[in-house]
Design a protein that fits this description.
alpha/beta, 11-stranded mixed sheet, 16 helices, ligase
Length: 476
């Protein structure tokens, strides 16, 4: 029998509804796991044990009084989760893993964490990340490196590395992440879990410490795509506090996926995504995964898309420009420590972004990047006239050794090359595990058209129901 902390979200909810165990039992199981292994992998910046046990006791009291019917209004009641440390949590330290904010305690709640709180969740703590989400390895945290539970000498990916590690090693039932280009899907792939990046604007950015405002997308990191769909139901929707959030109606993503059938579904394999330098084991596992989907009824179609390598320059200019604007607010008066506390990566990005936006260079760099961004968006629009979803590797290789990121000033952009095009286009994407190469997880990503989360969730669900890759766990 599984330990309680090893349960999926839907399994944990079923157990709580049937009173097979309490929220206190579930929360203590997660906290025990954190105490046992987190000193080795360092997923958490802050652990909120006292608050978690109090919330769990309150959840048990409500379940005791109301019974299973309470889950209709509080769909995550008693579920312990981990939160990436760039989501503002009222009264709980929120650092974005940066020395600038190391003592910052927000006086307000982000929309995502407020919705999760109202749904009844139990917050276990805040997870480590690349400082201000600047990175793809969780090595640029100003506090400490997070390690991959599959191999402690390797990185977990980033910037949501702490969240992916917490889910992969069963220290929580699910976690929140945020993606600007690959920061949910990348660590999910390298840690062997499911990471869902919604359409830009599907989930409110309010209270998430901004990196690049035109691509930042909060989303769930979970043990299965069904769990991720269930969480998306709760956190998606229009938010009056975020003008970029979409008024489009939220559908029941979990229910839609249960009705999903691969028959008649056209899955596009972009040739250019397989022509870049891929690790052979990654290529092999992704090809096997698409063949599996074909055997389950999908039609696999080779298609032409603009090479993802062109998105590197576009994303770099746009992201750096928005970083320089967003970090300008951190002046040491309102948020604590002054600007001398910025790490090297933040300083680099501020300088390049300020340069790109300066008089005489704006037209040559920023404006041109926006034009190429439009070409990428139009290219995707054309593709989705012929296919339902796109399938590609999430990352070009499996998790790399600690320290590899120091060898390239563009490490993050090169690692995220396969997720950057869909991010700059604002498209939804999900990464799910599709096997192991050299003992490390490989992720396949499915990309959908705007607000077509139900299709990428549906394809992922069929794949996970007919394979065992999402059940593979690191031995730690």
């Amino acid at each position: 029998m599984k330990n309680l902390n090893e349960l999926t979200l839907l399994e944990a909810l079923e157990g709580l509804k049937r009173r097979e165990f309490s929220s206190i039992d579930l929360t203590k199981s997660c906290l025990s796991r954190i105490k046992k292994i987190d000193k080795k992998i360092k997923a958490f910046v802050t652990i909120t044990e006292e608050e978690a046990l109090k919330s769990a006791a309150e959840a048990d009291e409500v379940i005791g009084k109301e019974g299973a019917i309470i889950f209709e209004t509080k769909p995550l009641l008693g579920i312990p989760y981990a939160c990436k440390d760039n989501f503002s949590t009222k009264g709980i330290k929120t650092t974005a893993s940066s020395n600038v904010l190391k003592n910052y305690v927000p006086p307000f709640e982000s929309t995502v964490t407020r919705k999760l709180k109202e749904a009844g969740t139990v917050l276990l703590g805040k997870t480590n990340m690349d400082a201000f989400a600047h990175g793809s390895s969780t090595e640029t945290s100003d506090f400490f490196e997070t390690r991959n539970p599959w191999d402690l000498k390797k990185v977990p990916g980033g910037s949501s590395g702490g969240s992916a590690v917490a889910v992969s090693s069963d220290m929580c039932i699910f976690a929140t992440g945020s993606e600007t280009a690959g920061s949910i899907r990348g660590p999910a792939a390298w840690c062997g879990v499911t990471g869902l990046k919604p359409t830009y604007g599907r989930v409110s950015r309010y209270g998430v410490i901004a990196m690049a405002s035109s691509t930042d997308s909060p989303g769930p990191i979970a043990k299965t795509v069904n769990d991720a769909a269930y969480i998306l139901n709760i956190i998606a929707g229009k938010d009056p506090l975020d003008a970029t959030s979409s008024p489009k109606q939220v559908i029941n993503y979990l229910l839609k996926s249960e009705e999903f059938n691969l028959k008649g579904i056209r899955i596009g394999k972009p040739k250019s995504y397989f022509e870049i330098e891929l690790e052979e084991g990654v290529r092999e596992k992704v090809d096997e995964a698409t063949e599996k989907l074909k055997s389950l009824g999908a039609e696999i179609v080779d298609i032409d898309l603009i090479s993802p390598k062109y998105s590197i320059a576009v994303y770099t200019i746009l992201q750096r420009s928005e970083v320089s604007s967003n970090l300008a607010r951190l002046d040491g008066i309102r948020y604590g420590n002054d600007r001398t506390n910025f790490g090297f990566e933040a300083k680099k990005r501020i300088m390049l972004g300020t340069y790109s936006l300066s008089a005489g260079y704006y037209d040559a760099f920023y404006e041109k990047a926006q034009k190429v961004r439009t070409l990428i968006i139009n290219d995707f629009n054309e593709a989705f006239k012929n296919v339902d979803v796109l399938a590609a590797p999430t990352m070009p290789c499996v998790a790399l050794n600690l320290g590899e990121s120091d060898k390239s000033a563009m490490f993050g952009e090169l690692m995220d090359v396969l997720t950057e095009p869909s991010s700059v286009a604002g498209l939804p994407g999900v990464s799910i595990p599709c096997g192991l190469s050299s003992g490390m997880p490989v992720g396949i990503q499915f990309i959908g058209n705007h607000f077509d989360e139900s299709k990428i969730i549906g394809v992922s669900k069929v794949f996970q129901e007919n394979t065992n890759f999402c059940k593979l766990k690191p031995k730690i």
